[in-house]
Amino acid sequence: MGRVSAFFSKNWQTLLFLVPAFLYLLGFLLIILYQVILLSVTRLTPAGQPFVTLDNYRALVLSTELSQALVNTSLFALVGTPLVLAFGLSSALLVNRAYRGVSLVRTAFILPLAIPSLVTATVLFIMFDFPGGHINDLLTGRYSFSPGFLTEPVNFRASALTSLGVALGGKVWRDMPIAMLILLSGLNSIGRDLYEAAAVLGAGRLRSFFKITLPLLLPAISIVLLLRAIEMWKEFIFPFILAARFPMLATLIERAYHEWNSPFMASALSLVLVAVTLVSSLILYYGLAFLRSRVTRA
Amino acid sequence: MAAKSWHWRIILALGTFFTLTLILFPVYILFKYSFSDRASIVTGGEVIPWWPYNPTLEMYRFLFSASDFLRANLMSVEIALLTVAISLILGAPAAYALARYRIPAKGLLLLSLLSVRLFPDVAAAVPVAELLFKLNMQNSVLGVSLAHTLLAMPYVIFIAMGVFDSIPRDLDEQALVLGAGRFRIFFRVALPLAAPGLAAAAIYAFLLSWDEFIFAYFLLFFSDTFTLPVYLQKILSWSPQQNLLAAVSVVLSLPVILFTLVVQRYMRAGILSGALK
Amino acid sequence: MNQPAAKGDKYQLRLEGLSKRYGSIIALDDLSLPVCAGEFVTLVGPSGCGKSTTLRIIAGLEEPSSGQVYIGGKLANYLPPGRRSVAMVFQSYALFPHMTVAGNLAFGLKIKRLPSAETKARLGWALKLLGLEQMENRLPKQLSGGERQRVALGRALVLHPQVLLLDEPLSNLDAKLRLRMRTELKRLHRKLENTVVYVTHDQLEAMTLSDRVAVLDQGRLIQLGTPDEVYSFPKNLFVAGFIGTYPMNFLAARLESGAAGPVVQTEAFSLPVDERFARRVRRPDQQLILGIRPEDFSLAPAGGGNLTALVEVVEPTGADVLITLTVGQTTLKVLLAAKAKVNPGDQLDLAVDLDRLHLFDKEREVNLLWED
Question: Which end of chain C is more exposed for a tag (fewer CB within 10 A), N or C?
Answer without folding.
Answer: C
